[in-house]
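Ticket closed. Logging final result for Xyloglucan endotransglucosylase/hydrolase.
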Amino acid sequence: MSLSTILSLVQLSSTGNKHCEFDYEFLGNETGQPYLLHTNIFVDGVGGREQQIRLWFDPTLDYHYYNFQWNKDLLVFYVDNTPIRMFRNLEGTVTNFLYPKACPMKLYLSMWDGSKWATQGGRVKLDWNAAPFIASYKNFRLNGCEAMQDDKAAIHNCQNSTYAAPGEKFQRMGGTRTKQLREVKNNYVHYNYCDDRPRYPEMPEECKYNVL
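Final structure:
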């Protein structure tokens, strides 16, 4: 990827004002610098939950496995089967908390110019002379309950299916996955909205329940 190019892998419920969205965004870098993987979560149209990690490999050299695990209790982002981020369902625990539990999703892929912010906070701009910009994908796997955006009956059925409640192993963070997640937090985090005091003078309450 070139400087300030953003390659997005987005699981998006809709384009409306109340949409849900889970993002993987790969930020272009300067030669020799680690690539940043930018993630965000939108619920009911509200995001502001950005996190970035320094990838421990060059994602342009080979294919890697990126996936979301999403059920009624937990949303986990993975890279090569290593959890890099989790987002718990804290409804009933955190005041006014909203969890994505009624959001049929589609998968979108895109590439766009992030010169305003992507590389070193926007100091480094996209080099159009490096075009064409090419992204390759393979081995897509989707395993979930099918529902259309406006089909309330289908959404209700999915909420009560084994996809929403696949069992304790997948609805909780076990010891091994929690350890892996903490290793990512301790060694690879570049930015975490939970730690951004100029932006959030008081840490969002949800943060204390999520390891990363």
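The chain has a mean pLDDT of 86. No further action required.
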